[in-house]
């Protein structure tokens, strides 16, 4: 008879049942019995061998999510249950050994609760023979449901012959290459010869590589003015976006000067006087001589003269030397200083000025001096020269400008040096500028945005760059070793202090196209704006395609916009080569796409699918139609909203049927890329365009 226990405090009736493996029957996730034979009772305790893990139950698991390590597994199953974990290098599988079958049961319960994290590949209770493990593994493998084969979204069609019999739309047969148009620099090296004004005013040759980026604005592709109504003003305010900078103007432009004079008289009558230093209105005056001054800065400039003339009846006069003391030095703002954007030159170049209080006051005092001097400045008596600083007046605005190009006497290129915007203007808007005003500091400095590529401006990027000008304050970050000696600019990063985000990354995100999903519908040609030459006479055009001359059709673009087509192609090329991942795409009929033609990615419209793997693609920027294989076609991203600049024209006066000899003479006269002058452009009520060229009649005869 067993001896009765005197101390029953440590007795647990469930412990024997819990650890009795013969009374339990555990089944793994595949329905196989993992406990078929009771393990032999353990003898005397031996030293724990780390290599003897096969005696303990274990699970072979595969992780379904990333960032699962050994520490995470121990916390997931519990430290009191896990004995050891084996993780093979560079593998998604690992083996977890448990202390006993109770810990194994707890692990199964945990895995059932969180099935999205781990997947059970094998479950073993320990102590089984190797042959038995192999049999169980084979049985579980037989019970598994095979995963479906992963096939590509579209199997590329074999490049067979092009089906020309069933096509209903004619394709271009001549196989002309797409023309390329290069932007001509505004300033050439001849303007920087020794002793010239350009070499003096631009010693670093900053404007040698500058190109005009706002041809679309000049040709009416965008809305340049927006009207706003403010509560503090009875008249609406117009915001104008002009060649890289935005400005505000009054709706009553004619009465602008008279309203300013009336306001000055009202301010003077109210008791305010103009500061002798900065000419701003102030109520602070000397009690002895009644000399007006604004603040401590203005007082420091005139204090020496005031001490000599106060009480003598003599007035204080500010000469050029005193004015130079008033203004701090110009140049690139220091690192981590606050700046504001005055204009943008291209997608990766902006002009900034210091935004601290002293620089703000100095900047606006320069603008005031230019305004006061420009109101009475006479017009130029002769054509300006490159490098000359003039007063530029337009729409009630008076600014300083540096002349860059005078090749066309009726269309002179200037840069507004206090903002950075490059514009073309008529010579009657330019006035003489005194040497004192011309030598005033120029606080607007160009910086190159780090990591932002140079691309043609999309409408979205253009609106974003106009929106960040004005009142937004940025922190300027750069290092001197990142100075770009080719473009003579400092590479920098701008940080928006209000939202604490980088302006560089924001611009790059706006301008980078994203590959669209193939499950939705694409975009039609109406998704893009269209810019055509206005109806008129004696208009210069550039021929982009002449493959349909036998039908009396030619494709042209305005001469001033031809270079914009080549600028767009750089973005299309990057999208087709580096961004898009799909290998094939059969564009539905009538939808936009990006297609490769003669090794270059261009945008087009799918016109016809005949089942041979070669849809007929109309390249909208040129006008030719070609069958393109589906492996050379990509879906069109919604970020690329460049306007279409090429138009289809009917040639007026041609016979209904042309002979082959006549077609060849027309193709020789109207070569692809040639600049032609049209006698007249006609637009009918259905928005169809026609061209009239009188010399073609003589050519056909």
Automatic annotation (TrEMBL):
This is Protein vreteno. InterPro entries: Tudor (IPR002999). Transmembrane segments: none annotated. Gene3D superfamilies: 2.30.30.140. SMART domains: TUDOR. SUPFAM superfamilies: Tudor/PWWP/MBT. Coiled coil: none annotated. It comes from Drosophila madeirensis. The lineage of its organism: Eukaryota, Metazoa, Ecdysozoa, Arthropoda, Hexapoda. Residues 382-438, 585-641 form the Tudor domain.
């Amino acid at each position: 008879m067993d001896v009765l226990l005197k101390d029953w405090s440590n007795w647990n009736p469930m412990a024997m049942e819990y650890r009795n493996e013969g009374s339990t029957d555990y089944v793994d996730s595949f329905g196989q019995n993992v406990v078929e034979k009771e393990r032999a009772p353990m003898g005397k305790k031996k030293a724990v061998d780390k290599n003897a893990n096969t005696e303990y139950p274990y699970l072979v698991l595969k992780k379904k999510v990333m960032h699962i390590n050994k520490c995470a597994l121990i916390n997931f199953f519990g430290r009191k249950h896990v004995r050891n974990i084996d993780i093979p290098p560079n593998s998604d599988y690992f083996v977890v050994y448990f202390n006993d079958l109770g810990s194994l049961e707890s692990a199964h319960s945990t895995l059932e609760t969180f099935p999205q994290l781990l997947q059970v590949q094998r479950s073993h209770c320990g102590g089984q023979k190797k042959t038995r493990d192999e049999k169980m593994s084979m049985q579980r493998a037989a019970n598994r449901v095979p995963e479906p084969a992963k096939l590509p979204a579209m199997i590329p069609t074999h490049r067979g012959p092009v089906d020309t019999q069933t096509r209903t739309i004619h394709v271009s047969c001549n196989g002309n290459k797409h023309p390329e148009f290069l932007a001509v620099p505004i300033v050439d090296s001849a303007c920087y010869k020794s002793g010239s004004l350009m070499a003096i005013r631009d010693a670093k040759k900053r404007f040698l590589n500058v190109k005009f980026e706002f041809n679309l604005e000049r040709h009416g592709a965008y809305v340049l003015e927006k009207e706003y109504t403010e509560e503090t003003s009875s008249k609406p305010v117009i915001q104008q976006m002009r060649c890289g900078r935005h400005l505000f103007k009054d709706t009553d432009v004619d009465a602008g000067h008279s309203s300013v004079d009336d306001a000055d008289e009202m301010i003077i009558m109210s008791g305010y006087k103009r500061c002798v230093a900065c000419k701003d209105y102030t109520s602070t005056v000397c009690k002895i001589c009644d000399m007006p001054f604004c603040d401590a800065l203005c007082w420091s400039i005139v204090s020496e003269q005031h001490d000599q003339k106060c009480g003598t009846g003599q007035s204080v006069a500010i000469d050029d030397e005193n004015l130079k003391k008033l203004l701090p030095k110009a140049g690139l703002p220091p690192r981590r200083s606050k700046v504001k954007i005055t204009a943008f030159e291209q997608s990766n170049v902006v002009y900034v000025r210091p935004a601290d209080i002293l620089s703000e006051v100095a900047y606006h005092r320069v603008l005031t001096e230019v305004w006061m001097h420009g109101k009475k400045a006479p017009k130029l008596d002769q054509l300006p020269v490159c490098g000359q600083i003039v007063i530029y007046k337009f729409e009630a605005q008076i600014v300083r400008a540096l002349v860059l190009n005078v090749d066309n006497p009726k269309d002179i290129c200037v840069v507004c040096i206090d903002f950075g915007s490059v514009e073309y203007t008529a010579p009657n808007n330019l006035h003489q500028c005194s040497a004192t005003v011309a030598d005033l500091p120029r606080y607007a400095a160009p910086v190159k945005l780090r990591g932002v590529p140079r691309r043609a401006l999309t409408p979205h990027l253009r609106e974003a760059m106009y929106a960040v000008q004005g009142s937004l304050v940025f922190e300027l970050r750069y290092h001197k070793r990142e100075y770009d000696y080719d473009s003579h600019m400092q590479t920098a990063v701008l940080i928006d202090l209000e939202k604490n985000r980088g302006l560089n990354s924001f611009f790059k995100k706006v301008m980078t196209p994203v590959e669209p999903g193939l499950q939705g519908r694409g975009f039609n040609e109406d998704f893009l704006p269209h810019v055509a030459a206005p109806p008129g006479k004696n208009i210069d055009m550039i021929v982009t395609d002449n493959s349909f001359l036998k039908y009396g059709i030619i494709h042209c673009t305005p001469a001033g916009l031809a270079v914009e087509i080549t600028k767009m192609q750089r973005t299309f090329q990057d999208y087709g080569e580096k961004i898009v991942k799909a290998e094939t795409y059969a564009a539905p009929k009538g939808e936009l796409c990006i297609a490769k033609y003669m090794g270059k990615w261009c945008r087009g419209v799918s016109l016809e699918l005949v089942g041979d793997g070669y849809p007929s693609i109309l390249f909208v920027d040129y006008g030719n139609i070609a069958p393109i294989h589906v492996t050379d076609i990509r879906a069109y991203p919604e970020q690329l909203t460049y306007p279409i600049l090429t138009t289809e024209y009917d040639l007026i006066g041609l016979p209904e049927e042309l002979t082959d000899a006549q077609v060849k003479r027309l193709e020789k006269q109207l070569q692809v890329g040639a600049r032609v002058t049209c006698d007249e452009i006609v637009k009918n009520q259905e928005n169809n365009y026609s061209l009239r060229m009188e010399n073609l009649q003589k050519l056909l005869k």
